């Protein structure tokens, strides 16, 4: 029986190659593009576009959107850099943490780090917009990260007189959730193998809900274990455990229980996985609070300070190869020929 051809009208979608919908739809029947042929490109319009491009005599600027891996590699080669892997399930506050840190740096130095540039300014402005007054929203909002290839947000900072680059990896939360179900799903997450710091987000709002508490407490160790089984942390990066949405925790009648659960979770992760990481840190943040009971961006400065800490040098071990032959037992003897 012939296999049905996978087609999609969205030319950017690679579902035929990777099996993942770029629109983030698990139910492909809900995707407006899946199963449809891409529209034909009008040759006349294409010619007009090429003529317009040929007539343009200005300066072409980069799009300043989040970087794909090739462009991220070029940034890593330009300055001393820190790669940050951010692990968080769907709606855990990953985008808010990235956007909140960028907004905080616009107000002045954060943890002795002064904003010194970015090649992803447009990307930052897009994810920050819905949390600003200019969006006309009633409360801050963050767009979910779509499924697909990982993208990187870039910030240059000046600290103690030296320039450093910060590359923050952004991947959809659904892909991290799938690692808890099947560890092999972590194989393609190359950004974690390169990361200097792994940041695991714990959703404070869900932790405060009795119906979700067990899921939050149980999923994070499973995700980390799945990553370890696939060799994601061989470089022994530092590990930050971050409670997000502390504003929701502070107004919850279960506030004390949530804080106790977070400390227990952070301690259990540190004890269980100590051999796979360098330094551990735990932080409580409110990147984009919906309630004014906490300050916007609270806790992000301490987290940034941890991100900038140098990683411990990997501890190498001399491995002696043994073939099982008698020669393996021979030792070199110093001989005096004098």
Automatic annotation (TrEMBL):
Lineage: superkingdom: Bacteria
Ranges for domain Double-GTPase: 82-308
A Pfam family assignment: DO-GTPase2
InterPro entries, alphabetized: DO-GTPase2, P-loop_NTPase
Name of this chain's protein: Double-GTPase 2 domain-containing protein
Species in which this protein is naturally found: Labrys monachus
